[in-house]
Write a structure and sequence with these properties.
Two copies of one chain form a homodimer. Chain A has eleven helices and no strands. The first copy, chain A, is mostly helical and 205 residues long.
Protein backbone atom coordinates (compact mmCIF):
# COMPACT_ATOMS: atom_id res chain seq x y z
CA UNK A 1 0.00 0.00 0.00
CA UNK A 2 1.36 2.53 -1.43
CA UNK A 3 0.79 5.10 1.18
CA UNK A 4 3.19 4.01 3.75
CA UNK A 5 3.69 6.74 3.15
CA UNK A 6 4.07 7.67 -0.39
CA UNK A 7 5.90 4.89 -2.09
CA UNK A 8 4.50 3.95 -5.44
CA UNK A 9 3.23 7.40 -6.35
CA UNK A 10 5.55 7.61 -9.25
CA UNK A 11 3.89 4.69 -10.93
CA UNK A 12 0.36 5.40 -12.05
CA UNK A 13 -1.47 4.22 -8.94
CA UNK A 14 -4.86 5.65 -8.03
CA UNK A 15 -3.52 7.83 -5.24
CA UNK A 16 -1.38 9.74 -7.68
CA UNK A 17 -4.35 11.54 -9.16
CA UNK A 18 -5.52 12.66 -5.72
CA UNK A 19 -2.01 13.79 -4.78
CA UNK A 20 -1.75 15.90 -7.89
CA UNK A 21 -5.18 17.45 -7.29
CA UNK A 22 -4.35 18.25 -3.68
CA UNK A 23 -1.04 19.86 -4.68
CA UNK A 24 -2.70 21.88 -7.44
CA UNK A 25 -5.51 23.10 -5.18
CA UNK A 26 -3.11 24.17 -2.49
CA UNK A 27 -0.76 26.01 -4.88
CA UNK A 28 -3.55 27.67 -6.87
CA UNK A 29 -5.14 28.88 -3.62
CA UNK A 30 -1.87 30.21 -2.22
CA UNK A 31 -0.43 31.89 -5.30
CA UNK A 32 -3.07 31.96 -7.99
CA UNK A 33 -3.36 30.14 -11.27
CA UNK A 34 -1.11 32.27 -13.41
CA UNK A 35 2.12 31.93 -11.47
CA UNK A 36 1.99 28.18 -10.86
CA UNK A 37 3.66 25.92 -13.43
CA UNK A 38 2.86 22.29 -14.09
CA UNK A 39 6.44 21.53 -13.07
CA UNK A 40 5.86 23.22 -9.70
CA UNK A 41 2.70 21.20 -9.08
CA UNK A 42 4.52 18.01 -10.02
CA UNK A 43 7.29 18.82 -7.54
CA UNK A 44 4.77 19.58 -4.78
CA UNK A 45 2.98 16.29 -5.46
CA UNK A 46 6.25 14.40 -5.77
CA UNK A 47 5.49 13.04 -9.24
CA UNK A 48 6.98 13.35 -12.67
CA UNK A 49 5.41 16.21 -14.70
CA UNK A 50 4.52 13.76 -17.45
CA UNK A 51 2.08 12.09 -15.06
CA UNK A 52 0.08 15.31 -14.76
CA UNK A 53 -0.34 15.38 -18.51
CA UNK A 54 -1.22 11.71 -18.42
CA UNK A 55 -3.98 12.19 -15.84
CA UNK A 56 -5.28 15.65 -16.64
CA UNK A 57 -4.09 16.87 -20.01
CA UNK A 58 -3.53 20.61 -19.97
CA UNK A 59 -3.07 23.01 -17.07
CA UNK A 60 -6.57 24.37 -17.79
CA UNK A 61 -8.01 20.89 -17.46
CA UNK A 62 -6.12 20.35 -14.21
CA UNK A 63 -7.47 23.64 -12.88
CA UNK A 64 -11.05 22.69 -13.72
CA UNK A 65 -10.59 19.34 -11.97
CA UNK A 66 -8.89 20.92 -8.95
CA UNK A 67 -11.65 23.47 -8.29
CA UNK A 68 -14.30 20.85 -8.94
CA UNK A 69 -16.28 23.16 -11.17
CA UNK A 70 -19.59 21.49 -12.00
CA UNK A 71 -19.06 22.02 -15.70
CA UNK A 72 -17.03 24.11 -18.09
CA UNK A 73 -18.96 27.14 -19.36
CA UNK A 74 -16.38 27.95 -22.02
CA UNK A 75 -17.86 25.83 -24.85
CA UNK A 76 -21.32 27.36 -24.36
CA UNK A 77 -19.91 30.86 -24.36
CA UNK A 78 -17.88 30.04 -27.46
CA UNK A 79 -20.83 28.64 -29.38
CA UNK A 80 -22.91 31.72 -28.61
CA UNK A 81 -20.21 34.20 -29.62
CA UNK A 82 -18.57 32.65 -32.64
CA UNK A 83 -19.77 33.58 -36.04
CA UNK A 84 -22.00 36.43 -34.90
CA UNK A 85 -21.67 40.20 -35.02
CA UNK A 86 -20.49 42.24 -32.05
CA UNK A 87 -23.77 44.08 -32.17
CA UNK A 88 -26.08 41.73 -30.31
CA UNK A 89 -23.32 39.66 -28.70
CA UNK A 90 -24.55 40.83 -25.28
CA UNK A 91 -28.04 39.61 -26.01
CA UNK A 92 -26.76 36.25 -27.20
CA UNK A 93 -24.62 36.02 -24.07
CA UNK A 94 -27.73 36.61 -21.94
CA UNK A 95 -29.49 33.71 -23.64
CA UNK A 96 -26.47 31.46 -22.93
CA UNK A 97 -26.34 32.78 -19.36
CA UNK A 98 -29.96 31.84 -18.67
CA UNK A 99 -29.58 28.46 -20.36
CA UNK A 100 -26.62 27.68 -18.10
CA UNK A 101 -27.85 29.21 -14.85
CA UNK A 102 -31.50 28.18 -15.03
CA UNK A 103 -30.40 24.66 -15.99
CA UNK A 104 -29.62 21.54 -13.97
CA UNK A 105 -26.24 22.85 -12.74
CA UNK A 106 -27.69 25.85 -10.89
CA UNK A 107 -27.20 24.47 -7.38
CA UNK A 108 -23.61 23.46 -7.99
CA UNK A 109 -22.79 26.73 -9.70
CA UNK A 110 -24.33 28.68 -6.85
CA UNK A 111 -22.40 26.68 -4.28
CA UNK A 112 -19.19 27.44 -6.15
CA UNK A 113 -19.98 31.17 -6.33
CA UNK A 114 -20.95 31.37 -2.66
CA UNK A 115 -17.75 29.63 -1.59
CA UNK A 116 -15.58 31.79 -3.79
CA UNK A 117 -17.19 35.04 -2.58
CA UNK A 118 -17.33 34.15 1.09
CA UNK A 119 -13.64 33.54 1.79
CA UNK A 120 -10.76 35.70 0.55
CA UNK A 121 -8.62 32.59 0.00
CA UNK A 122 -11.26 31.16 -2.37
CA UNK A 123 -11.61 34.19 -4.62
CA UNK A 124 -9.05 32.63 -6.96
CA UNK A 125 -11.59 30.04 -8.09
CA UNK A 126 -13.96 32.52 -9.72
CA UNK A 127 -11.18 34.89 -10.72
CA UNK A 128 -9.22 32.20 -12.52
CA UNK A 129 -12.27 30.58 -14.01
CA UNK A 130 -13.18 33.96 -15.42
CA UNK A 131 -9.71 35.01 -16.55
CA UNK A 132 -8.53 31.67 -17.90
CA UNK A 133 -11.69 30.19 -19.32
CA UNK A 134 -14.15 32.98 -20.12
CA UNK A 135 -11.72 35.70 -21.18
CA UNK A 136 -9.74 33.25 -23.29
CA UNK A 137 -12.93 32.06 -24.92
CA UNK A 138 -13.95 35.62 -25.75
CA UNK A 139 -10.49 36.23 -27.18
CA UNK A 140 -10.68 33.09 -29.29
CA UNK A 141 -14.09 33.95 -30.71
CA UNK A 142 -14.14 37.77 -30.91
CA UNK A 143 -10.43 38.50 -30.94
CA UNK A 144 -10.36 39.52 -34.59
CA UNK A 145 -13.15 42.07 -34.12
CA UNK A 146 -12.60 43.43 -30.60
CA UNK A 147 -9.44 44.92 -29.07
CA UNK A 148 -8.33 44.97 -25.43
CA UNK A 149 -10.53 42.01 -24.54
CA UNK A 150 -9.07 41.43 -21.04
CA UNK A 151 -9.90 45.04 -20.15
CA UNK A 152 -13.42 44.87 -21.58
CA UNK A 153 -13.99 41.49 -19.95
CA UNK A 154 -13.57 43.05 -16.51
CA UNK A 155 -16.55 45.32 -17.19
CA UNK A 156 -18.58 42.51 -18.75
CA UNK A 157 -17.75 40.45 -15.66
CA UNK A 158 -18.90 43.24 -13.36
CA UNK A 159 -22.34 43.06 -14.98
CA UNK A 160 -22.52 39.25 -15.22
CA UNK A 161 -21.39 38.58 -11.65
CA UNK A 162 -23.83 41.24 -10.46
CA UNK A 163 -26.61 39.51 -12.36
CA UNK A 164 -25.76 36.25 -10.60
CA UNK A 165 -25.89 38.03 -7.24
CA UNK A 166 -29.16 39.90 -7.81
CA UNK A 167 -31.01 37.14 -9.68
CA UNK A 168 -29.93 34.00 -7.83
CA UNK A 169 -28.63 35.07 -4.43
CA UNK A 170 -30.51 38.23 -3.41
CA UNK A 171 -33.45 37.36 -5.71
CA UNK A 172 -34.31 41.01 -6.36
CA UNK A 173 -37.45 41.40 -8.46
CA UNK A 174 -38.13 41.74 -11.30
CA UNK A 175 -34.58 40.74 -12.28
CA UNK A 176 -34.97 37.35 -10.58
CA UNK A 177 -38.01 36.40 -12.69
CA UNK A 178 -37.21 37.81 -16.12
CA UNK A 179 -36.82 35.50 -19.11
CA UNK A 180 -33.79 35.29 -21.36
CA UNK A 181 -35.19 37.62 -23.99
CA UNK A 182 -36.05 40.29 -21.42
CA UNK A 183 -32.52 40.12 -20.04
CA UNK A 184 -31.17 40.23 -23.59
CA UNK A 185 -33.03 43.48 -24.22
CA UNK A 186 -32.20 45.16 -20.91
CA UNK A 187 -28.72 43.92 -19.99
CA UNK A 188 -27.52 42.82 -23.43
CA UNK A 189 -26.85 46.42 -24.61
CA UNK A 190 -24.71 47.01 -21.50
CA UNK A 191 -22.44 44.15 -22.56
CA UNK A 192 -22.42 45.31 -26.19
CA UNK A 193 -21.26 48.72 -24.98
CA UNK A 194 -18.49 47.25 -22.81
CA UNK A 195 -17.31 45.34 -25.90
CA UNK A 196 -17.21 48.48 -28.05
CA UNK A 197 -16.56 51.53 -25.83
CA UNK A 198 -13.13 53.21 -25.96
CA UNK A 199 -10.83 51.61 -23.41
CA UNK A 200 -7.39 52.62 -24.63
CA UNK A 201 -7.05 55.11 -21.76
CA UNK A 202 -7.69 52.31 -19.23
CA UNK A 203 -4.90 50.00 -20.33
CA UNK A 204 -1.54 50.20 -18.68
CA UNK A 205 0.18 48.55 -21.65
CA UNK B 1 -44.85 32.08 32.35
CA UNK B 2 -41.89 30.69 31.10
CA UNK B 3 -39.99 33.83 30.92
CA UNK B 4 -39.21 34.01 34.64
CA UNK B 5 -35.55 34.60 34.02
CA UNK B 6 -36.41 37.66 32.12
CA UNK B 7 -38.18 39.71 34.75
CA UNK B 8 -37.68 43.38 34.44
CA UNK B 9 -37.65 43.46 30.66
CA UNK B 10 -40.65 45.66 30.55
CA UNK B 11 -38.92 48.39 32.43
CA UNK B 12 -36.08 49.97 30.50
CA UNK B 13 -33.27 47.71 31.70
CA UNK B 14 -30.17 47.14 29.56
CA UNK B 15 -31.22 43.64 28.51
CA UNK B 16 -34.31 45.01 26.84
CA UNK B 17 -32.36 46.52 23.98
CA UNK B 18 -30.55 43.23 23.35
CA UNK B 19 -33.82 41.28 23.53
CA UNK B 20 -35.39 43.54 20.95
CA UNK B 21 -32.38 43.26 18.64
CA UNK B 22 -32.32 39.47 18.93
CA UNK B 23 -36.04 39.23 18.18
CA UNK B 24 -35.73 41.58 15.21
CA UNK B 25 -32.76 39.72 13.76
CA UNK B 26 -34.46 36.39 14.07
CA UNK B 27 -37.75 37.57 12.53
CA UNK B 28 -36.08 39.54 9.71
CA UNK B 29 -33.97 36.50 8.85
CA UNK B 30 -36.92 34.12 8.90
CA UNK B 31 -39.52 36.19 7.09
CA UNK B 32 -37.83 39.24 5.61
CA UNK B 33 -38.08 42.88 6.48
CA UNK B 34 -41.29 43.77 4.70
CA UNK B 35 -43.66 41.39 6.41
CA UNK B 36 -42.51 41.94 9.98
CA UNK B 37 -44.27 44.62 12.03
CA UNK B 38 -42.89 46.47 15.02
CA UNK B 39 -45.76 44.94 17.01
CA UNK B 40 -44.64 41.46 16.02
CA UNK B 41 -41.07 42.15 17.09
CA UNK B 42 -42.31 43.55 20.38
CA UNK B 43 -44.36 40.41 20.99
CA UNK B 44 -41.41 38.16 20.16
CA UNK B 45 -39.19 40.11 22.52
CA UNK B 46 -41.89 40.25 25.18
CA UNK B 47 -41.86 44.04 25.45
CA UNK B 48 -44.28 46.85 24.84
CA UNK B 49 -44.04 48.24 21.27
CA UNK B 50 -43.45 51.72 22.67
CA UNK B 51 -40.13 50.49 24.04
CA UNK B 52 -38.92 49.73 20.53
CA UNK B 53 -39.60 53.29 19.52
CA UNK B 54 -37.90 54.46 22.69
CA UNK B 55 -34.72 52.49 21.98
CA UNK B 56 -34.52 52.52 18.21
CA UNK B 57 -36.87 55.07 16.67
CA UNK B 58 -38.24 53.80 13.36
CA UNK B 59 -38.40 50.32 11.91
CA UNK B 60 -35.66 51.33 9.45
CA UNK B 61 -33.43 52.35 12.34
CA UNK B 62 -34.13 49.08 14.12
CA UNK B 63 -33.25 47.17 10.96
CA UNK B 64 -29.94 49.00 10.60
CA UNK B 65 -29.12 48.24 14.23
CA UNK B 66 -30.20 44.60 13.94
CA UNK B 67 -28.03 43.84 10.92
CA UNK B 68 -25.15 45.79 12.41
CA UNK B 69 -24.49 47.63 9.20
CA UNK B 70 -21.30 49.65 9.60
CA UNK B 71 -22.99 52.83 8.39
CA UNK B 72 -26.04 53.95 6.49
CA UNK B 73 -25.25 54.63 2.81
CA UNK B 74 -28.61 56.30 2.18
CA UNK B 75 -27.59 59.88 3.05
CA UNK B 76 -24.55 59.73 0.75
CA UNK B 77 -26.64 58.35 -2.10
CA UNK B 78 -29.25 61.04 -1.48
CA UNK B 79 -26.76 63.87 -1.49
CA UNK B 80 -25.27 62.70 -4.76
CA UNK B 81 -28.60 62.29 -6.52
CA UNK B 82 -30.65 65.20 -5.33
CA UNK B 83 -30.70 68.36 -7.32
CA UNK B 84 -28.95 66.93 -10.35
CA UNK B 85 -30.12 65.82 -13.77
CA UNK B 86 -30.80 62.18 -14.62
CA UNK B 87 -28.18 62.46 -17.30
CA UNK B 88 -24.99 61.93 -15.35
CA UNK B 89 -26.65 60.46 -12.26
CA UNK B 90 -24.77 57.20 -12.91
CA UNK B 91 -21.45 59.01 -12.97
CA UNK B 92 -22.26 60.86 -9.75
CA UNK B 93 -23.30 57.55 -8.18
CA UNK B 94 -19.93 56.07 -9.15
CA UNK B 95 -18.15 58.92 -7.36
CA UNK B 96 -20.25 58.26 -4.23
CA UNK B 97 -19.63 54.53 -4.58
CA UNK B 98 -15.85 54.97 -4.60
CA UNK B 99 -15.96 57.49 -1.74
CA UNK B 100 -17.91 54.99 0.37
CA UNK B 101 -16.14 51.78 -0.64
CA UNK B 102 -12.57 53.05 -0.79
CA UNK B 103 -13.10 54.76 2.56
CA UNK B 104 -12.55 53.66 6.15
CA UNK B 105 -15.62 51.39 6.22
CA UNK B 106 -14.40 49.08 3.44
CA UNK B 107 -13.51 46.12 5.68
CA UNK B 108 -16.83 46.21 7.53
CA UNK B 109 -18.81 46.63 4.33
CA UNK B 110 -16.97 43.73 2.74
CA UNK B 111 -17.58 41.53 5.77
CA UNK B 112 -21.29 42.33 5.56
CA UNK B 113 -21.42 41.56 1.82
CA UNK B 114 -19.49 38.30 2.22
CA UNK B 115 -21.79 37.13 5.00
CA UNK B 116 -24.92 38.05 3.11
CA UNK B 117 -23.78 36.30 -0.08
CA UNK B 118 -22.39 33.19 1.56
CA UNK B 119 -25.50 31.91 3.35
CA UNK B 120 -29.01 31.79 1.90
CA UNK B 121 -30.48 32.78 5.27
CA UNK B 122 -28.41 35.96 5.28
CA UNK B 123 -29.39 37.23 1.85
CA UNK B 124 -32.12 39.31 3.49
CA UNK B 125 -29.50 41.70 4.88
CA UNK B 126 -28.31 42.99 1.52
CA UNK B 127 -31.71 42.60 -0.11
CA UNK B 128 -33.46 44.64 2.54
CA UNK B 129 -30.70 47.19 2.82
CA UNK B 130 -31.01 47.68 -0.91
CA UNK B 131 -34.80 47.65 -1.14
CA UNK B 132 -35.55 49.63 1.97
CA UNK B 133 -32.68 52.09 2.09
CA UNK B 134 -31.25 52.54 -1.38
CA UNK B 135 -34.41 52.16 -3.47
CA UNK B 136 -36.32 54.43 -1.09
CA UNK B 137 -33.57 57.00 -1.30
CA UNK B 138 -33.64 56.92 -5.09
CA UNK B 139 -37.42 57.30 -5.00
CA UNK B 140 -37.16 60.26 -2.63
CA UNK B 141 -34.58 62.05 -4.76
CA UNK B 142 -35.44 61.10 -8.37
CA UNK B 143 -39.08 60.10 -7.97
CA UNK B 144 -40.41 63.16 -9.77
CA UNK B 145 -38.22 62.55 -12.82
CA UNK B 146 -38.03 58.75 -13.10
CA UNK B 147 -40.85 56.20 -13.20
CA UNK B 148 -40.83 52.56 -12.07
CA UNK B 149 -37.88 53.10 -9.76
CA UNK B 150 -38.09 49.71 -7.98
CA UNK B 151 -37.85 47.98 -11.37
CA UNK B 152 -34.95 50.14 -12.56
CA UNK B 153 -33.21 49.76 -9.21
CA UNK B 154 -32.94 46.00 -9.73
CA UNK B 155 -30.87 46.60 -12.86
CA UNK B 156 -28.81 49.33 -11.20
CA UNK B 157 -28.24 46.91 -8.33
CA UNK B 158 -27.10 44.18 -10.72
CA UNK B 159 -24.33 46.49 -11.93
CA UNK B 160 -23.40 47.90 -8.51
CA UNK B 161 -23.27 44.54 -6.70
CA UNK B 162 -21.23 43.17 -9.61
CA UNK B 163 -18.82 46.07 -9.25
CA UNK B 164 -18.39 45.24 -5.57
CA UNK B 165 -17.68 41.62 -6.47
CA UNK B 166 -15.21 42.28 -9.30
CA UNK B 167 -13.43 45.26 -7.72
CA UNK B 168 -13.21 44.26 -4.05
CA UNK B 169 -13.67 40.49 -3.87
CA UNK B 170 -12.30 39.02 -7.10
CA UNK B 171 -10.04 42.05 -7.70
CA UNK B 172 -10.21 41.75 -11.48
CA UNK B 173 -7.98 44.25 -13.26
CA UNK B 174 -8.26 46.93 -14.44
CA UNK B 175 -11.64 47.37 -12.71
CA UNK B 176 -10.04 46.90 -9.27
CA UNK B 177 -7.61 49.80 -9.75
CA UNK B 178 -9.66 52.39 -11.64
CA UNK B 179 -10.38 55.77 -10.07
CA UNK B 180 -13.81 57.27 -9.52
CA UNK B 181 -13.78 59.32 -12.72
CA UNK B 182 -12.81 56.31 -14.84
CA UNK B 183 -15.67 54.30 -13.33
CA UNK B 184 -17.98 57.27 -13.88
CA UNK B 185 -17.13 57.29 -17.59
CA UNK B 186 -17.31 53.51 -18.12
CA UNK B 187 -20.02 52.28 -15.75
CA UNK B 188 -21.90 55.56 -15.20
CA UNK B 189 -23.64 55.39 -18.60
CA UNK B 190 -24.87 51.87 -17.81
CA UNK B 191 -26.66 53.22 -14.76
CA UNK B 192 -27.99 56.24 -16.67
CA UNK B 193 -29.45 53.83 -19.21
CA UNK B 194 -31.10 51.66 -16.54
CA UNK B 195 -32.66 54.85 -15.14
CA UNK B 196 -34.07 55.88 -18.52
CA UNK B 197 -34.71 52.75 -20.65
CA UNK B 198 -38.31 51.61 -21.25
CA UNK B 199 -39.37 49.22 -18.50
CA UNK B 200 -43.16 49.29 -18.71
CA UNK B 201 -43.19 45.82 -20.23
CA UNK B 202 -41.25 44.45 -17.26
CA UNK B 203 -43.63 45.56 -14.54
CA UNK B 204 -46.32 43.23 -13.33
CA UNK B 205 -48.42 46.10 -12.00
Amino acid sequence: MARTKRSGRRSGNPDTRAEILAAARSLFAAEGYGSISMRRIAAEAGVDPSLIHHYFGSKDDLFMAAIEIPFDPAPEVASVLEGGEIEGAGGRLMHAFVAIWDGPHQDKLLAMVRTSLSKPAMAFVLRNLFEHRIVKTIEATLGDKVDHIPVRAGFVGSQIFGLVVTRYILKLEPVASLGAEELAVTIGPTIDRYLTMPVEHLTAE
